[in-house]
Design brief:
The structure holds two protein chains of two kinds. By secondary structure, chain A is an alpha+beta fold. Chain A is about 15% helix and about 20% strand. The mean pLDDT of chain A is about 95. In chain B, the strands form seven sheets. Chain B has a five-stranded parallel sheet with strand order 3-2-1-7-18. Chain B has a five-stranded antiparallel sheet with strand order 21-22-25-24-23, with helices on both faces. A four-stranded parallel sheet of chain B has the order 11-10-9-15, with helices on one face. In chain B, a hairpin with a 6-residue loop joins strand 19 and strand 20. Classes of the chains: A alpha+beta, B alpha/beta.
Chain lengths: ~110, ~400
């Protein structure tokens, strides 16, 4: 199991456990977490699963995927160097303990 | 805050989005979401793509069961509404009557089944059950014959060919995806499917589904021990029609997505709504239209104020390693300008109507923004930039 902590815009922390291979987006959706929409189901057609990777985890999650940067341009909240589409972060044992912060809005 | 009882008929992605958006906007009254298919609301787009390869049905649920209790949304699936009684302001399911103050029709579409001899032998690809059956049928080497060269037929063909099956596609129109993309893009995908080893029969409709495959209009026999019918869909309008609502290639709604009855809205694949700008009624089959409609309707119900719906349509299709993205909505007869990287710009009356790209999210996103502008860029203004959208 891979533990992920989602920190909502108001500071609420939600800890979820996923399997390697799940995405940070799909784990949130499967648990009905508010704050991630994931409208296109991970097809990189929208930017409604925007998250900010916690500073401590930036190296472990790696660089943005091909095309991700372009989709992020349409995110409704500010895009920073820590911004990712959570559908493009795949869980692995190396990400156990991952912390991501959620924007105020996704749509 | 708004009260009032909302009933949503249809628990696909649009119906579910309407329920979620109502709560998000602060609707406090009861919400009932009714769906004919069993189980939790799920994503359809992957059924003709990733699901055929992975078979992971549990990954398709749009929200978990607990979500509905948390949001106080009454989910009733595996149930079909029998009638809408507008005079009484109720929806009927068998002997049960459910009163509503607002009603949202999100009934979607169903597969078109042309009256071909033997068509009962052909399988559908619309529901999770359909996709699971197809996936199971691909467990041994097959001769796959696909009726219809649109998105669904071609996505399935690409997966089947990729798995090593022998695939044929028969399409009555002279080119692939003729309703949705430019002739140039049709050609690009013809090349792709031929490179995958798929036999394409274009301009050659199916006249019969036989014991051994298909018979085409010119007499050609196509081998197929697995036949997929993917010849388009028709909107589910019967409930609305029986309730006396206007039907025009879908449930007719105004720019606020309301039917002639101000309490009743329609969204997504079943709704025929006025296109922003042209005002002509269009009906879109896409996740984007379903969810954007849903959000607009929820806002109208909760705030009581509405602005005309004007979202830019977008679509996508994954076929082998090509991701086709379309921003905007072109007519089949719109002009085409093909760029060096293969992107196609579409124009009507000198204005940009759509942009088709392959594996190019940057241009796709830029196009969505350009098409949302008022006015939309002219062909001349884009030509001055050598059609470089990133410079526009």
């Amino acid at each position: 199991m891979v533990k992920v902590t989602y920190v909502a815009h108001d500071g609420t922390r939600t800890e979820l456990e996923g399997d390697p291979g799940d995405s940070v987006m799909s784990l949130a959706i499967a648990n009905g977490l508010d704050g991630i929409v994931g409208e296109c189901g991970g097809s990189m057609m929208c930017a409604t699963c925007h998250c900010y990777v916690d500073e401590d985890w930036q190296a472990a999650t790696g660089a943005r995927m091909d095309g991700e940067e372009d989709m992020l341009e349409s995110a409704v909240c500010e895009v920073t160097e820590r911004s990712r589409l959570s559908c493009q972060i795949t869980l692995s044992e190396a990400l156990d303990g991952l912390v991501v912060h959620l924007p105020e809005e996704q749509v | 805050m708004s009260g009032g009882r909302v009933i949503i008929i249809g628990a696909g992605q649009g119906g579910l989005q309407a329920a979620m958006s109502l709560r998000q906007e602060g609707h406090s009254g009861p919400i009932t979401l009714i769906g004919g298919e069993p189980g939790l609301p799920y994503q359809r787009p992957p059924l003709s793509k990733a699901f055929l390869k992975t078979g992971e049905a549990d990954k398709l649920a749009l929200r978990p069961e607990s979500f509905f209790a948390t949001k106080d949304i009454t989910l009733r699936t595996g149930e079909w509404v029998d009638a809408i009684d507008r005079e009484a302001g109720v929806v009927r399911i068998g002997a049960e009557t459910l009163p509503f103050d607002h009603l949202i029709l999100a009934t979607g579409t169903r597969n078109l089944r042309p009256a071909l001899p033997g068509v009962d032998r052909a399988l559908d690809l619309r529901t999770l059950g359909d996709a699971a059956a197809l996936r199971a049928a691909l467990d041994r080497p097959r001769k796959v014959a696909v009726i219809g060269g649109g998105f669904i037929g071609l996505e399935f063909a690409a997966v089947a060919a990729g798995l090593g099956h022998e695939v044929s596609v028969a399409e009555a129109a002279p080119r692939l995806m003729a309703r949705a993309v430019s002739p140039e893009m049709s050609r690009r995908f013809r090349d792709l499917h031929e490179a995958l080893g798929t036999a394409l029969h274009l301009g050659n409709g199916v006249t019969e589904v036989t014991e051994t495959g298909l018979t085409l209009a010119d007499g050609t026999e196509v081998a197929g021990d697995l036949v997929l019918l993917a010849a388009g869909v028709r909107p589910n309008t019967e409930l609305a029609e029986a309730a006396g609502l206007e039907i025009a290639n879908g449930i007719a709604v105004d720019a606020e997505l309301r039917t002639r009855d101000p309490r009743i809205f329609a969204l997504g694949d079943c709704a025929a709504f006025p296109e922003a700008g042209s005002g002509r009624r269009i009906r879109l089959e896409s996740v984007q239209a379903a969810t954007d409609h849903a959000r607009a309707i929820a806002k109208t119900i909760v705030t009581g104020t509405a602005s005309p719906y004007a979202a830019v349509p977008w679509f996508w299709s994954d076929q082998s390693d090509l991701k086709l993205q379309i921003a905007g909505l072109a007519d089949p007869t719109d002009d085409s300008v093909t760029l060096e990287d293969g992107a196609v710009l579409r124009f009507r009356d000198g204005r940009l109507t759509a942009v088709e790209t392959i594996n190019n999210a940057k241009i796709h996103m830029k196009a969505r923004r350009l098409l949302a502008a008022d006015p939309v860029p002219t062909r001349d203004s884009l030509l001055q930039r050598n059609y470089d959208l990133t410079a526009a």
